[in-house]
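Renewal narrative, Specific Aim 1. Our central claim is that a sequence can be written position by position from structural information alone. The example that follows is taken directly from our test logs and has not been curated for this report. It begins with the C-alpha cells describing the chain, in the order in which they were read.
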C-alpha cells in the first residue's frame, strides 16, 4: 500500500513539473505504459494472499485513475497555453496598411487611339490594321505616288530593301482595304497604327509616330460628309462647341485636298500661345479620294466617291493633355506615363 502511494506521489509530481505538451506525453508513456510503475504494481497482485487482493487492486486502480486524470487536466491546461501562445505569436494586425500593387497605366497614345476608334465604331466603321513593314506598292504606288515623284521626298523613310519600307502613313492600310474590298461598296474603316519617317528627333519631330486614318467609299459621298464627320471628331477629341475649318492643301491620293484646323480648345478662338494667336490649330489632312486611287483598286470613279482623312495621334495627345515634347511618348519615363493613370 505504501508503495502505491509512493508511485502515485512521484507520478503526480512529475506531471506537475511538465511545462510542455511533449514533456507530458513522455511522462504519460513512462508512468502509464506497459513497463511503467503502475503496471509493475499490478504484477505484484499474483503474489498476494486472496483476501488482500481486492483492497490492493482497488488501490492500484484508484492510483491509475488519479494519475490519468491528472495527466488529462494538465494536458488540457498545457494545450490551452500553447494555443494562446500561438495565437499571440501569429496574430495578424488587420489594421496595418496593405502592400499596394503597382499597376501599369494606359499609354496616352493608346487612350487617344481608343477614343477615336470608339467614336468611329459607334458610327458603323470597322477597325482595319496593316503591316508596319510595308510594300512600296501600298505605301506609295497605290497612293498615286509613283517612283520618280518628288512628293516622295516629303515622306522619306527607312527602307528594308528596294521594295519594302517602314510605312510613312496609315494611308497604306487604306490602299490594302480598297484592294481587298474588290469593288464592293460601301467601305467604312478607321485605321490606327504606327508610322515612320526619316526625321531627326526633336521636340516636335519623331522618326516613329502614330496616325489614325479614316476612309469612306460609297455612292454620292461628298466633301460635306467629310466635314460633318470631322466636326464630330473635333468635338469628341477637344470638347463640345469646337469648330473646324478647311484650308486648301495637296496630297497625291486626294482631290481636292484640305488641311483641317480646329478652333483652339484653350482660348476658345480668342488667340493664345498654343494657337499662336490665331485661334485655330492645324490637326489633320484630308480630302476626297483621288479618282486614280479608286481606279487602281478596281473601283469606277464615275459610280462612287469617297473621303479620307489622316490624323497624327501624338499631335492630338499633345494638344489634349498639354504635352510640349513629342519625345515624351517614346522614352518610357514612368513619371510621365503615370500622369495618365485613369485609376488613380
Ligand atoms: N497621309 C497623309 C499624311 O500622312 C494624311 C492624309 C490621309 C491626307 C488621308 C489625306 C487623306 O500626311
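The sequence written for that structure reads:
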Amino acid at each position: 500500500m505504501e508503495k502505491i502511494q509512493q508511485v502515485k506521489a512521484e507520478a503526480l509530481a512529475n506531471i506537475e513539473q511538465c511545462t510542455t505538451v511533449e514533456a507530458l506525453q513522455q511522462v504519460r508513456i513512462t508512468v502509464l505504459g506497459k513497463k511503467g510503475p503502475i503496471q509493475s504494481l499490478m504484477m505484484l497482485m499474483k503474489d498476494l494472499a486472496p483476501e488482500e487482493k481486492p483492497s490492493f487492486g482497488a488501490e492500484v486502480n484508484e492510483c491509475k485513475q488519479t494519475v490519468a486524470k491528472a495527466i488529462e487536466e494538465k494536458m488540457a491546461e498545457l494545450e490551452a497555453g500553447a494555443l494562446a501562445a500561438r495565437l499571440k505569436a501569429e496574430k495578424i494586425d488587420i489594421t496595418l496598411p496593405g502592400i499596394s500593387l503597382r499597376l501599369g497605366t494606359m499609354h496616352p497614345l493608346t487612350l487617344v487611339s481608343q477614343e477615336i476608334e470608339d467614336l468611329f465604331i459607334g458610327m458603323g466603321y470597322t477597325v482595319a490594321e496593316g503591316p508596319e513593314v510595308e510594300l512600296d506598292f501600298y505605301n506609295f504606288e497605290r497612293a498615286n505616288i509613283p517612283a520618280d515623284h518628288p512628293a516622295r521626298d516629303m515622306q522619306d523613310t527607312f527602307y528594308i530593301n528596294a521594295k519594302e519600307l517602314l510605312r510613312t502613313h496609315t494611308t497604306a492600310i487604306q490602299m490594302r482595304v480598297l484592294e481587298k474590298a474588290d469593288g464592293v461598296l460601301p467601305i467604312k474603316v478607321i485605321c490606327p497604327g504606327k508610322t515612320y519617317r526619316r526625321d531627326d528627333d526633336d521636340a516636335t519631330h519623331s522618326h516613329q509616330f502614330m496616325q489614325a486614318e479614316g476612309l469612306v467609299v460609297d455612292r454620292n459621298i461628298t466633301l460635306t460628309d467629310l466635314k460633318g464627320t470631322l466636326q464630330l471628331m473635333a468635338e469628341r477629341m477637344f470638347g463640345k462647341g469646337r469648330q473646324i475649318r478647311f484650308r486648301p492643301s495637296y496630297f497625291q491620293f486626294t482631290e481636292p485636298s484640305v488641311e483641317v484646323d480646329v478652333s483652339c480648345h484653350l482660348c476658345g478662338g480668342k488667340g493664345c500661345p498654343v494657337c499662336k494667336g490665331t485661334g485655330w490649330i492645324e490637326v489633320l489632312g484630308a480630302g476626297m479620294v483621288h479618282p486614280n486611287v479608286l481606279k487602281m483598286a478596281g473601283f469606277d470613279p464615275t459610280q462612287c466617291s469617297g473621303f479620307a482623312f489622316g490624323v497624327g495621334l501624338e499631335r492630338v495627345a499633345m494638344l489634349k493633355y498639354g504635352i510640349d515634347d513629342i519625345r515624351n511618348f517614346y522614352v518610357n519615363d514612368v513619371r510621365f506615363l503615370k500622369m495618365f493613370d485613369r485609376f488613380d
